Amino acid sequence: MRIVIAPDSFKESLSASDVAAAIACGVRDVIPDADIVCVPMADGGEGSLDAVLAATGGERRVARVQNANNQACEASWAWLGDGKAFIEMAEAAGLEQIPPASRKPLQATSYGVGQLISQALDAGANHIVLGLGGSATNDAGAGLIQALGANLRDADGNELPLGGAALAQLARISLDNLDTRVNDVQFEIAVDVDNPLCGPRGASAIFGPQKGASPHEVTLLDAALARFAQVCAEQLHKDEKETPGMGAAGGLGFAVKTCMNARFRPGVDLIAELSGLADAMKAAELVFTGEGRMDAQTLLGKTPAGVARCAARYEIPVIAIVGSLGDGYQALYNAGITAAFSLVPGPLTLEQAYEKTPEYLRQRASDCCRLWLSGRPVNPLTTSSIEADYS
């Protein structure tokens, strides 16, 4: 009996690998001889690098780069072999690296992400997957292409300083000095949102406030990104500002799409492909997935929806175990989720939930297996499973 366990991470609590391991323990408590296949998942945002490494056996590499505040830091990326690399932009320019009091939304830069791409090019990469999400930046990827040699100048011919706000002064963009190796690379961008670059649903308006931008700064940044898009349209003859997904990660994908012909794909589909999720499901009878919170937004490219979509091809039931169930989660039942359960047993603080997450995941997985088995012709529950110790 094969059971596939393919959860996302539980933010600030457990990695996807740890979530999968806890669910696996609960399954084994009830079905000791189950063929359990753990496929840690992600949707392109934070935790994607760890999920890809865990699922593929790739090599973690570390580089010295600049963070969003243009300060030196160490960032990891993954070498997957055969010329393929995976880069999680949050490793170099992530919001969690910058304390709230130190966030500088007007000056925050994606320069370090470009440095990671350069590292991958040095290693011989010809296929780079870039996961977006969790960024501290709002510069539409300008810093990224600057790190790779692009020149962004004001009306006086001076190179623009780093950061999104400076783009308001952009007069000319030149790719003459852009690293020529990018021309031979297939870039794929993993995203989990469909926001455009600018406007009321754009990068600045929707995501700027969580990066510390005041209402006035949001207005400044939105205008600056619009200026960047205008210059690109006029001088590079590419107008991508309304393309879905351009608003992800402070608009980072805009520069990669415009200057390096990147292909955008749903992040969960890309991670599933890298992780071999479809192959794992071919002989499965049950699938577990999960995330920290499931609600109507889960349908918009989050991990459980992607896992359910994959399982539907093989008509496999999918159980979601999540930290909490929010408004509209029932819509997932029409998208392939068979049943969804919150892991917490009753009222408790967030800190208590974090502390006991592995235990609760194990218990809920065990409960779900018992219910699932009760409807099968042969019930393999054993005395040892009934007396399972959850300590």
Notes on the protein architecture:
This protein has helices spanning 16-30, 48-56, 89-93, 111-122, 142-147, 203-207, 215-235, 253-260, 267-275, 277-281, 303-312, 350-374, 383-386; strands spanning 2-5, 35-38, 59-66, 72-81, 84-88, 127-131, 151-153, 172-174, 186-191, 263-266, 284-289, 293-294, 318-322, 324-325, 339-342. It starts with a strand and ends in a 5-residue tail after the last helix. 34% of the residues lie in helices and 18% in strands. Residues 382-391 have low confidence and may be disordered. The protein is an alpha/beta fold and 391 residues long. The strands form 4 sheets. Strands 3-4-5-6-9-10 form a 6-stranded mixed sheet, sandwiched between helices. Strands 2-1-11-13-15 form a 5-stranded parallel sheet, with helices on both faces. Strands 7-8 form a two-stranded antiparallel ribbon.
Notable features of this structure?
391 residues; alpha/beta; Rossmann fold; Glycerate kinase, domain 2; 2 domains; 6-stranded mixed β-sheet; 5-stranded parallel β-sheet; 13 helices; 15 strands; 34% helix; 18% strand; disordered C terminus
State the low-pLDDT regions, or none.
Answer: 382-391
Q: Helix tally?
A: 13
Count of individual beta strands:
15
The SS-based structural class is alpha/beta
- What's the number of domains? 2
The percentage of residues in β strands lies in 15-25%
The CATH superfamily of the largest domain is known as Glycerate kinase, domain 2
State the name of the first-level CATH class of the largest domain: Alpha Beta
CATH topology type of the largest domain: Glycerate kinase, domain 2
CATH architecture of the largest domain, please?
A: Alpha-Beta Complex
Shape category: elongated
Mean pLDDT figure: 92
Cα distance, first to last residue? 26 Å
Q: State the order of secondary-structure elements, H for helix, E for strand.
A: EHEHEEEHHEHEEEHHHEHHEEHEEEHH
The biggest sheet, with number of strands, parallel, antiparallel or mixed sense and barrel status, is: 6 strands, mixed
| Major sheet strand order | 3-4-5-6-9-10
